[in-house]
UniProtKB/TrEMBL annotation:
Source species of the chain: Coprococcus catus
Domain Sigma-54 factor interaction: 151-381
Keyword match Nucleotide-binding: yes
Keywords associated with the record: ATP-binding, Coiled coil, Nucleotide-binding, Transcription, Transcription regulation
GO process annotations (BP): regulation of DNA-templated transcription
InterPro entries associated with the record: AAA+_ATPase (IPR003593), AAA_lid_NorR (IPR058031), Homeodomain-like_sf (IPR009057), HTH_Fis (IPR002197), P-loop_NTPase (IPR027417), PAS-like_dom_sf (IPR035965), Sigma_54_int (IPR002078), Sigma_54_int_dom_ATP-bd_1 (IPR025662)
SMART domains assigned: AAA
Record-linked Gene3D superfamilies: 1.10.8.60, Homeodomain-like, P-loop containing nucleotide triphosphate hydrolases, PAS domain
Coiled coil: 117-144
Protein name: AAA family ATPase
Pfam families per record: AAA_lid_14 (PF25601), HTH_8 (PF02954), Sigma54_activat (PF00158)
Entry's Gene Ontology molecular function annotations: ATP binding; sequence-specific DNA binding
Amino acid sequence: MTHQEYFDKLTDSIDTLSDILDTEHYGMCLVDKDGYIIKWYYEKFFNIKASAAVGRHVTEVIENTRLHVVAQTGVKELMQLQEINGSMVITNRIPLIHNHEVIGAAGTIIFRDIKEIAHLHSRMSKLEDNFKAYRSEIAKMYAAQYHFDDIITNNQKMLNLKHLGQTIARSDASVLIQGESGTGKELFAQAIHNASLVSHQPFVSLNCSSIPKELLEAELFGYESGAFTGARKDGKIGKFELAGEGTLFLDELGTMPMDMQVKLLRVLESKEYVPLGSNKKVPFKARVIAATNENLSNSMQNGSFRSDLYYRLNVININIPPLRERIEDLPVLCSSMLSQKEGLYHQSRLHMSQEAMDLLNLHNWPGNVRELRNVIDRAAIICEGSEILPQHLPEYIQAYRKSSPLESSDGYYHYEIACLERQLITKALRDNGGNRQAAAKQLGIHRSLLYKKMKDLGIHE
């Protein structure tokens, strides 16, 4: 292709964009190697017809131009100030090269007056301020509520875990929190976030088990408009983006499907992700805290959880003990919970009677602190005085009075046996998700005997 053929093809292509190029605010001019105008898209900008410009030397038409210089040197000049008609404009001058030879140059005006830059800067500053305000509002909407002071305990293991949490909070290491349902895993996660250097950033949580498998990816990654059937027209921001530079808390991690485990691992390792329906990579800067009530070691062995994701998340491990293993915390927990109820139900200075506390100590607390809170809430509601009595407790807690050595002539031997049976049966039911037949098999007893024992011991799981 000759130089002239190249010019012709180039100008034909540009002609299709003439309505865009030739406006009051924008334009373009092409010159050959000697600086003579061969294409003029400045009719509206300069109010000069193409017929009056084409064929003339560019210096005769545009004052203070250097387009002919660029056509000679082949060196581009970008974002250059140039005075035209008493105004300072910003121009780009780019050489046209064909077969490694400079054959001309193209010039464009980006801003017709540098005052436009100040106006643009002002608009950009407003947009930046709006964006900061938007991020600030998100941080308020997704603020963590709890601090380490909210973790009430006298148990040494729990105190050690609190100290560990406070120590690692100022790092950005991933954390895996394990523990039975109701032990306070999210409480720990929020406390870690609030003790971190990014406590002013969002704390965004997602329960992996509450989102249908087919929607989990969209919930995490977000999506562009029209990414899939049923998607919102304006798209959706995902949890990865909402978390910003704060904390992303993934609860019930053990229920996450295998394909999503792979994608999550990729995000954690690459520190970037691509929203559904987009081809643009977005940086991921949040810290990840994950929690599970499942035994992930068993899950890895049976192939339902990826070992590489486990080790990627398990940089710091916090294993919260169940309430039955820190039964000494019952008095302080009850006191703290009751203090929150003072004045709420017209009582003041609510406290537990010794008889009621004795019954709470007999329970195995399969629902942990969450179950205790429900018991205390119920008692505070129905109590008409200031002291929680045994009759204010649920029936399954009151049932322990029948096996109490204080109210039974059977003595401590039968009482201890009853307590042991209750613990074994409760654990078997919990291990088998409430399936009584499987629990009986685990205990090595007939199902009918299990039913009888549960009735006698007041077990209602």
